[in-house]
Design brief:
Length: about 350
C-alpha cells in the first residue's frame, strides 16, 4: 500500500483527481481525513504506481509506502485516534468506556437486573452472550436468537447499547440486526471469512485478541475488517496462554501501550477472561486504565454462584459498583474521565 499525503490546502477537486487516478490504476482508495492532513491510501499492487506522476498532481505533498504488514490499521495511515461513536457514547475519546454484563444471557430478568445496576454504576454498554463458544459441546451454548431478543428488549427498556458475540459466519446478519457492537471472540480472531463478512456490514466491531495470537496478528485481523470497509473497530486484550497456571490466562497489559503506539484504533481490556478470578478483576482493571486503555469489558451477574457460564470470574453487582469508583479515580489520575 502507498499513501498519498495531501497538502493542508488541497481542494476537494484536487483530492477527487487523485482518487480518480488511483481507481484508474485498478487500486482501491481508502481515505483518512485527519485534523492536520488528509491521506489517501492506494490499496493493491503498488507496482502500477508511478510515484513521480502522483507527486505531480496539484495538492499532493508526499507519496510514501507503508512497510508494515497492517496498513489501514497503522498510525502511518491515520495519526488521529479513531473514535467509535454509538449515539452519544464515544469509545476512544478521553473518557474511558466500561462495558459490563453477564457472560451469557440466561433470562430476561437476569439481564434486566444486571443492566439496570451496571448503568447505575456507570457502565455505558451492556455485554451478554447469546451464542457462547464453549470448550465442551455438552455445556450451555447460549439462548441464540432468543438471547438476542432479550438483549434488544433490555436495551430498549434500560436505554443502554449492547455488545454481543457472533460465533458463526452464518449468523452475521442475524447478530447485526440486534447488536449495537458485534463481538468477535478470541477463538474466532482468525476466522478470516467471518472477518470479511463482518467487515462488510456497518455495525462497530469488538475484536478480541486470540489466546494464542501475537499483537501483530491481532492487527492483521483488524486489517481484514478495515480493508472490507468497516473502520469502526475496537481491539480487546483478553489474556493469552502462557505456562502460568495461577490465572486463567496471562493478561498482557503491555499490549495496551504497544497497540496504542502502533494503531489508531481504540483498545480495551477484558480483565474477566484474562484472569478467570473475581478477586483479580479490579486490580487488572485499574492496571489497564493506568496503562492507557480506552475502556474495559467486565463480566457481572446478579447471582454469580448460579451463573450458567463463567460465574467464578463474574463480579457481584455491588462489587462492580465499587470497581467503577476505583476506575474513576485511576482514570482521573491519568488525565481521563469515566
Ligand atoms: C466472552 O466475552 O464471553 C468470551 C467468550 O470471550 P473470549 O472470546 O475472549 O474468550
Ligand atoms: Mn465469559
Amino acid at each position: 500500500m502507498m499513501i498519498v499525503v495531501l497538502k493542508k490546502a488541497a481542494t476537494i477537486k484536487e483530492m477527487a483527481a487523485v482518487i480518480k487516478h488511483i481507481e484508474a490504476l485498478g487500486l482501491k482508495p481508502h481515505i483518512s481525513e485527519g485534523d492536520e492532513k488528509t491521506i489517501i491510501g492506494a490499496m493493491g499492487d503498488e507496482r502500477v504506481i508511478d510515484k513521480d506522476k502522483l507527486l505531480g498532481f496539484e495538492g499532493v505533498e508526499a507519496v510514501i509506502p507503508i512497510l508494515k504488514p497492517y496498513k489501514l490499521a497503522s498510525r502511518e495511515f491515520k495519526s488521529d485516534r479513531t473514535v467509535v461513536s454509538l449515539n452519544g457514547t464515544k469509545i476512544g475519546n478521553s473518557a474511558v468506556v466500561v462495558m459490563a454484563g453477564p457472560c451469557a444471557v440466561e433470562s430476561y430478568e437476569q439481564v434486566l437486573e444486571a443492566a439496570i445496576s451496571a448503568k447505575e454504576s456507570g457502565a455505558k454498554i451492556l455485554r451478554g452472550g447469546a451464542f457462547k463458544p464453549r470448550t465442551s459441546p455438552y455445556a450451555f451454548q447460549g439462548l441464540g436468537r432468543k438471547g438476542l431478543e432479550i438483549l434488544a428488549r433490555v436495551r430498549d427498556e434500560v436505554g443502554i447499547p449492547i455488545v454481543t458475540e457472533c460465533l458463526s459466519q452464518d449468523d452475521v446478519e442475524l447478530v447485526s440486526d440486534y447488536a449495537d457492537i458485534i463481538q468477535i471472540g478470541a477463538r474466532n480472531m482468525q476466522n478470516f471469512s467471518m472477518l470479511e463478512k463482518v467487515g462488510k456490514q456497518s455495525r462497530p466491531v469488538l475484536l478480541k485478541r486470540g489466546m494464542m495470537s501475537t499483537i501483530e496478528e491481532l492487527l492483521m485481523s483488524a486489517e481484514y475488517l478495515l480493508s472490507n470497509g468497516n473502520y469502526n473497530v475496537i481491539l480487546c486484550e483478553r489474556g493469552i496462554r502462557t505456562f502460568e497456571k495461577m490465572t486463567r490466562n496471562t493478561c498482557d497489559i503491555a499490549a495496551v501501550p504497544v497497540l496504542r503506539s502502533l494503531t489508531h484504533l481504540p483498545v480495551i481490556v477484558d480483565p474477566s477472561h484474562a484472569t478467570g478470578e473475581r478477586h483479580l478483576v479490579t486490580p487488572l482493571s485499574l492496571a489497564a486504565i493506568a496503562a492507557g486503555a480506552d475502556g474495559l469489558i467486565i463480566e457481572i451477574h446478579p447471582n454469580p454462584d448460579k451463573a450458567m457460564c463463567d460465574g467464578y470470574q463474574s463480579l457481584h453487582l455491588e462489587q462492580f459498583a465499587q470497581l467503577m469508583k476505583q476506575v474513576s479515580t485511576v482514570a482521573q489520575a491519568v488525565g481521563r474521565s469515566v
